[in-house]
Design a protein that fits this description.
The chain is an alpha+beta fold. Helix content is 30%, strand content 40%. The chain is built from 2 helices and 10 strands, in the order ββββββββββαα. Strand 6 and strand 7 form a beta hairpin. The longest helix has 26 residues.
Length: 141
Amino acid sequence: MADKVKFELVSPEKLLLSEEVEMVVVPGGEGNFGVLPGHALFISTVRPGVIDVYEGSQITERIFVSGGFAEVTPERCTVLANEVLAPADVKREEGERRLAEAEAAYSTIDAVDVEGEELALERIQSARALVEAADALLTGR
């Protein structure tokens, strides 16, 4: 069994990252999950949050994703992300602005617009995760 797993991060525009890593931790729809070499086959939704890339016991890279899907095989972890932000681009002010806009949009949705309500709630969740990610990246947590 190999000692590395191939991690690929793909946005709608392009392949952003493709590298061999020791471990990657992804914010899955049911909770965070870690991927090591030899992982079982697995498909998951990805909730808004920060992906941590490890070399040894150290986080070497942190990347904010606004959601998406992940596919895991024994050799590879591929994350198809809706939106990707590098740590330098994660700003609390931007998260707060997005949150205010999403909450305002949510407050105007008609009670029978189920799809609109779901989309608005996803935008609120993503904006809150962006604010939390900004705080976590600022403090190094």
